[in-house]
Amino acid sequence: MGLLSGKERKRLSETIRDIYGNSDFLSNLGILKTSNRDRLWLVSKKIFEVDMQKLRVQSAGMYFGRFDNGMLRLSIEGAQLIGKTAKKNIVEISKDDVWHYMRGFNIKPIEKINTKNNSYVLVRHEKDILGIAKLVNDELQNVLPKSRKLISLTKEKNLYDEKG
Predict the structure, then answer these.
(1) Are 73 and 132 in contact (CB under 8 A)?
(2) Domain at 2-83: CATH code
(3) Bridge partners (DSSP) listed for residue 29
(4) What is the domain class of 90-148 according to CATH?
(5) Helix residue spans in the chain (DSSP H)
(6) CA dihedral in degrees (109, 115, 116, 119; nearest 10)?
C-alpha cells in the first residue's frame, strides 16, 4: 500500500471532475493505492503523523474504489461521498426498483442526468445515493458485490415509508 503521487492524485481529481462534475474534495484526504487491482483508499492526513515502520499495517482508511479497464469504479461509500456534490452521470430509479437494485438485479432508470453509455453511474432514489451501476443500452447492470446485496425471502414494500 503506497501513497498516491502528486501526479496520480491530480489525474484522479481530474477524472472525478470529468465523470461526475465534482469540485476537488480530495484535498483534505490522503489517498493510498494497493499494488493489486489498483484499489484506492481514503485516509485522514493525520495518519501520516504515526510512525508506520513500527506497525504491521494491512489496510487503512475507507475503501473508495478502483480502476476497472481504465474506468473509475466507486465503492458504495465512495459513491455516497461523490454523490453529495455530483452534477452528472447520475441515474434516478423508482421506489419499487430500490428493492430490485439492492437485491442485485438489473433495472431501468426513470431519469438520466448527463450520462454516457457503457460507463459507471451513480444510482439515486430521491436524495439517497444507493451505489453505482454500469449503464449499458438504457439498462443498469448491477455491480453490487455479492456480500453487499440484500437477501430476503419476503419483500419489504414500505422501504421508504416513514411508518415502516
Answers:
(1) yes
(2) 3.10.450.720
(3) 44
(4) mainly beta
(5) 6-20, 76-83, 95-103
(6) -70
Nearest to 65 by CA among 115, 120, 136: 120
- As given in the structure block, the three cell numbers for residue 65 are 474504489
d(C-alpha 123, C-alpha 81), whole Å: 13
Q: What is the CA radius of gyration of the chain?
A: 17
Distance CA 143, CA 134 (A): 7
CA distance 38 to 21: 23
In this structure, what is the dihedral angle of CA atoms 74, 79, 85, 86, given to the nearest 10 degrees? 60
pLDDT digits (tens, 9 = 90+) for 32-65: 888 776 899 999 888 778 877 777 776 778 999 9
In terms of pTM, does the model score above 0.90?
Answer: no
Q: Are 39 and 59 in contact (CB under 8 A)?
A: no
Instruction: Give the start-to-end residue ranges of the domains of the chain.
Output: 2-83, 90-148
CA distance 159 to 157: 6
